[in-house]
Specification:
238 residues; 75% helix; mainly alpha; 10 helices; globular; transmembrane
């Protein structure tokens, strides 16, 4: 790994995406095997670090390939577990959506490897102060979601909206990077905010009303927001 910036949390940014992918896989298989209402809690809290893999710097091409392959396989494992769970519970819409997640997770990780393999670096990196800021936000997330995931009537999955709300700060702190891009990219940045807000609105209705209609209404814009998030991170590279 590079030694170019003492302030960059290299070790943390190396480990956290791997841990996040592992937790995602573990939560998904735990849901499939046990149908536990706690499934999805830890991965919902930690999924943000999967998206931050763009900030991991590895000099060796071999280690870079191994690293992103491991992340990809762990995410694929989780996606497959969710697909199997929703097939078993006859939730057609959700298992189709998770096929979409399987494609998005694979494509995103492959593109991160491709960019780094070709010596392309992101125009901005996650610094130590930013990482600590994200971690401090997770305390609030724990406080909010523990009562929700302790509800025996709900069998929830991993959701991305909390991660996206935290990423809002990162995107807008580095808005100057997007200003250098096309008008379409800047437009999609605002679309991303709107879509995540809509998804989060229906997600909270699902938790409050306990109707799976709202879960499905939240899931559609959420996968669209995931695609937008992956695109915006991709555009961070030079």
């Amino acid at each position: 790994m590079s030694e170019d910036d003492n302030n960059e949390p290299r070790v943390a940014m190396f480990l956290l995406p791997l841990i996040s992918a592992g937790v995602y896989s573990g939560d998904a298989w735990f849901l499939y095997i046990t149908h536990s209402y706690y499934s999805g809690f830890l991965s919902t809290v930690s999924i943000i670090f999967f998206y931050l893999q763009f900030s991991t710097i590895i000099e060796s091409n071999l280690y870079l390939l191994i690293y992103h392959t491991l992340i990809c396989l762990l995410m694929l494992s989780g996606d497959i577990a969710y697909i199997l769970y929703y097939i078993a519970t006859k939730n057609l819409m959700q298992w189709i959506l998770f096929i979409g997640y399987l494609i998005l997770h694979s494509l995103f990780t492959a593109l991160m490897y491709y960019k780094k393999r070709n010596n392309r670096r992101p125009r901005v990196l996650v610094e130590q102060s930013t990482l600590f800021h994200y971690i401090s936000r997770l305390e609030i997330v724990f406080a909010l979601f523990i009562p929700i995931f302790s509800n025996e009537k709900l069998h929830s999955r991993t959701t991305n909206n909390i991660a996206f709300f935290i990423l809002f700060d990162f995107f807008f702190e580095n808005y100057k990077v997007f200003r250098c891009r096309s008008k379409i990219t800047k437009f999609l940045l605002y679309v991303f905010v709107i879509v995540v807000t809509v998804s989060a609105f229906f997600e909270w209705l699902f938790y409050a009303r306990e109707r799976h209609l709202y879960e499905n209404l939240s899931a559609i814009p959420e996968i669209f927001a995931t695609a937008l998030c992956c695109y915006l991170i991709f555009k961070l590279f030079e």
